[in-house]
Design goal:
The protein is mainly α. The protein is 67% helix and 3% strand. The chain has helices at residues 7-36, 42-58, 69-88, 99-119, 121-127, 137-142, 146-159, 187-204, 208-238, 242-250, 254-275, and strands spanning 165-167, 170-172, 177-179. The chain is elongated. The relative contact order is 0.10.
Length: 290
């Protein structure tokens, strides 16, 4: 069979282009993360790191066509705006959430135009994760889990033999009471695990059924672990352990709760997948957030 002219060098060209793209993605991610670190928003920095890492893993070439000049201009503008947004703001702003997606989309347009954009839908979905975690204020108000957290916390306390009465979001113990406010509702924990569930589902290429299980278990584990934390805080408050209460409420040990939730969810997911056959090739990445 006669070989078409240029066909022999087409594959090396595409391979070279995707290698350059991945190297550029690492450089852009490093710059964005360095700029984002100045804002002090640890949750945003962490989820951006995971999003860029996952996007680089699943990125692939969409063809060997050279994008039009106008398309490259659009890509350059998107890329520059993503860096400019992070560079001018000393503190975390809502616009920061769009920076990873804008940077990734700009790189794809520069590398291969709209063909590469269509071929990298999974990578772009991962770069959308910073838009969801930490959850925006509107989402926290719409999906307020305070009552559910208070209900589960009261259940844990009763199972532990602690006398408690629940009045909405208020836990009433014999010598104290604890109100489960929006900041302690567990919505941050739930969205953190949901972000990891999306990351794991895309990178491991699981079936829709298993992807749904990852998301559902992330919500359940996030709610349960945070409810255990609230129950523990209620016991400390009832005993008058003010110092320990403050430490576990907003101090460094509070980070252990997030790490524990991630470890429990990751271990449970791995156990379920292995017991069901066709185990994934990896497990969810552990991450902590306040």
């Amino acid at each position: 069979m006669e070989e078409e002219p240029g066909q022999a060098i087409r594959a090396p060209q595409v391979t070279s282009r995707i290698a350059v793209f991945r190297a550029a993605a690492i450089a852009v991610a490093a710059i964005q993360l360095a700029l984002a670190a100045r804002s002090g928003a640890e949750e945003f920095w962490l989820i951006s790191f995971l999003a860029w890492g996952g996007a680089r893993l699943v990125a692939r070439a969409g063809g060997d066509e050279t994008p039009a000049f106008a398309v490259r201009i659009a890509g350059g503008v998107l890329l520059a705006s993503s860096l400019f947004e992070l560079a001018i703001a000393q503190q975390y702003q809502m616009g920061h959430r769009l920076a990873p997606l804008a940077g990734g989309l700009g790189l794809l347009l520069l590398a291969g135009g709209f063909l590469w954009v269509r071929a990298n839908g999974r990578a772009l979905v991962l770069l959308c994760l910073p838009m969801l975690h930490p959850p925006p204020v509107a989402v926290r108000e719409l999906l307020d889990t305070s009552r559910a957290t208070a209900f589960v916390s009261a259940l844990f306390l009763r199972l532990s033999g602690v006398a408690v009465e629940r009045r909405g979001t208020l836990l009433v113990l014999p010598d104290s009471s604890l109100s489960v406010g929006g900041a302690c509702s567990g919505i941050n924990q739930i969205f953190q695990l949901l972000a990891l569930a999306v990351l794991a589902a895309i990178i491991l290429e699981v079936t829709p059924r298993r992807a749904a299980w990852l998301a559902g278990s992330a919500v359940a584990v996030g709610l349960a672990v945070n409810a255990l934390r609230i129950a523990f805080l209620a016991v400390l408050a009832n005993r008058g352990e003010t110092r320990l209460f403050d430490l576990w409420h907003q101090g460094p040990p509070a980070l252990l709760v997030s790490a524990a939730a991630t470890a429990v969810w990751g271990g449970l997911s791995l156990l379920v997948f292995r017991s069901g056959g066709g185990a994934p090739t990896g497990s969810a990445t552990s991450a902590t957030a306040p």
